[in-house]
């Protein structure tokens, strides 16, 4: 087998069952599509049934969806059991769902702060715990957290988001140290500024900010959702079988601090 063929086979996710939270739009949808193109059956999770169904249809027969709010942590075991019965035991979990809050720290209320933590930290942990229990029985699995550059350096007016994404990195390291003995790897990516519908709208309203972002990014462009998807697919594949507990920036060099 040639090297090129070997590399393709290492990244092929045939027979894998993947769950992607927030999988119906933006980066989550790109990740869902990327995993399906690598051979995995993908379950898209989110709160809006219509959006999820449309996203699953756009991916094709490899995709299905489940309405689920990650903040409702008490339902994580039942969700994993339901997916296992309907699709198969999950071997991949992508913790991508999140909410954002842009507000000065001194004006951020306890309720606003708690809502961000509940989604990114408590919700992601509950789902990871439930999925990892099943993965451990199979002696295989990959969990990937979609963290942020806000966990790497200080960004003003996103105190709750920064705290949540930094906490995710702690979860990754602790879970990786415990779960790897059961054959379950846990990693994270830290995306930089990515070109999505949401970011496009924000930059259209603030062209000066877009220029500052490009000046901060050595590659001098925004990232594409599919570039995030390809890295996630790599981390879930056999090509990354010895990669565990890492936080991989995917940011065009923005975090190098030039």
TrEMBL record:
<dbReference type="GO" id="GO:0008874">
    <property type="term" value="F:gluconate 5-dehydrogenase activity"/>
</dbReference>
<dbReference type="InterPro" id="IPR002347">
    <property type="entry name" value="SDR_fam"/>
</dbReference>
<comment type="similarity">
    <text>Belongs to the short-chain dehydrogenases/reductases (SDR) family.</text>
</comment>
<keyword id="KW-0812">Transmembrane</keyword>
<feature type="domain" description="Ketoreductase">
    <location>
        <begin position="16"/>
        <end position="196"/>
    </location>
</feature>
<dbReference type="InterPro" id="IPR036291">
    <property type="entry name" value="NAD(P)-bd_dom_sf"/>
</dbReference>
<keyword id="KW-0560">Oxidoreductase</keyword>
<keyword id="KW-0472">Membrane</keyword>
<dbReference type="InterPro" id="IPR057326">
    <property type="entry name" value="KR_dom"/>
</dbReference>
<dbReference type="Pfam" id="PF13561">
    <property type="entry name" value="adh_short_C2"/>
</dbReference>
<keyword id="KW-1133">Transmembrane helix</keyword>
<feature type="transmembrane region" description="Helical">
    <location>
        <begin position="143"/>
        <end position="164"/>
    </location>
</feature>
<dbReference type="GO" id="GO:0030497">
    <property type="term" value="P:fatty acid elongation"/>
</dbReference>
<protein>
    <submittedName>
        <fullName>Gluconate 5-dehydrogenase</fullName>
        <ecNumber>1.1.1.69</ecNumber>
    </submittedName>
</protein>
């Amino acid at each position: 087998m040639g090297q090129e063929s070997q590399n393709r086979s290492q990244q092929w996710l045939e027979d894998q069952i993947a769950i992607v939270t927030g999988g119906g739009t933006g980066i989550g949808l790109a990740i869902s599509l990327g995993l399906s193109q690598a051979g995995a059956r993908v379950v898209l999770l989110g709160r809006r049934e219509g959006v999820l169904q449309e996203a699953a249809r756009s991916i094709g027969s490899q995709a299905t969806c489940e309405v689920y709010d990650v903040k409702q942590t008490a339902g994580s075991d039942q969700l994993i059991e339901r997916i296992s019965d309907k699709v198969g035991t999950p071997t991949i979990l992508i913790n991508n769902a999140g909410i954002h809050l842009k507000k000065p720290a001194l004006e951020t209320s306890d309720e606003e702060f708690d809502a961000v933590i509940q989604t990114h930290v408590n919700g992601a942990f509950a789902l990871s715990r439930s999925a990892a229990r099943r993965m451990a029985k199979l002696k295989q699995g990959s969990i990937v957290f979609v963290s942020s550059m806000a966990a790497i350096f200080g960004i003003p007016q996103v105190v709750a988001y920064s705290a949540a994404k930094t906490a995710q990195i702690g979860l990754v390291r602790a879970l990786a140290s415990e779960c790897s003995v059961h054959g379950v790897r846990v990693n994270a990516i830290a995306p930089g500024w990515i070109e999505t519908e949401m970011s496009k709208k924000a930059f259209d309203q603030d062209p000066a900010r877009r220029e500052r972002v490009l000046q901060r990014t050595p590659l001098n462009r925004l990232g594409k959702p599919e570039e995030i998807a390809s890295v996630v697919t790599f981390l879930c594949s056999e090509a990354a079988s010895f990669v565990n507990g890492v936080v991989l920036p995917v940011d065009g060099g923005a975090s190098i601090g030039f």
